[in-house]
Write a structure and sequence with these properties.
About 25% of the residues lie in helices and about 40% in strands. The protein is α+β, with helices and mostly antiparallel strands and about 130 residues long. The chain has one domain: Cupredoxins -  blue copper proteins (Immunoglobulin-like), CATH 2.60.40. The chain has a five-stranded mixed β-sheet, covered by helices on one side. Strands 2-1-4-7 form a four-stranded mixed β-sheet, with no helix packed on it. A hairpin with a 2-residue loop joins strand 1 and strand 2. The longest helix has 19 residues. It is globular.
Length: about 130
């Protein structure tokens, strides 16, 4: 009887492996509050290869941006003239007292800056970091 139960356990394990092969990892949601010209939380960690939905709520009576990227992206925004961001999931405009949602799948690990580039917001301290593991 012992060989039969071992064979059954092996068959069940193989069936589970086949059933879960190719399944996408579960999505994750991160809530961010913009208040007093700060990001809360200021430091975020998310997994690579998993869709991450960011729910960004602006609790301030002024507009903000939530832009993720490397140094080149942020330098372009510091000197650029893009008043509104609606097309790239890593660049979001969040009007005063409103909420925006964006979903991003990061394909590689790394650390990225999160910055609001509206006039004087970065200098005031509206910066954060996003670590993809």
């Amino acid at each position: 009887m012992r060989p039969r139960s071992s064979l059954l356990a092996l068959a069940v394990a193989a069936a589970l492996a086949v059933a879960t092969a190719g399944c996408a990892p579960l999505a994750t949601t991160v809530e961010i509050v913009l208040k007093h010209s700060r990001f809360t939380p200021a430091a975020i960690e998310v997994p690579a290869g998993v869709p991450v939905t960011f729910v960004i709520r602006n609790a301030d009576p002024i507009d903000h941006e939530w832009i993720i990227g490397d140094g080149d992206i942020h330098q372009r925004h510091r000197t650029g003239t893009e008043p509104v961001h609606d097309e790239k999931p890593t660049e979001v405009t969040v009007p005063a007292l409103e909420t925006r949602t964006t979903t991003i799948t990061f394909d590689r690990a790394g650390v990225f800056a999160v910055v609001c580039h509206l006039p004087r917001h970065e200098a005031y301290g509206m910066v954060g970091s996003l670590r993809v593991r």
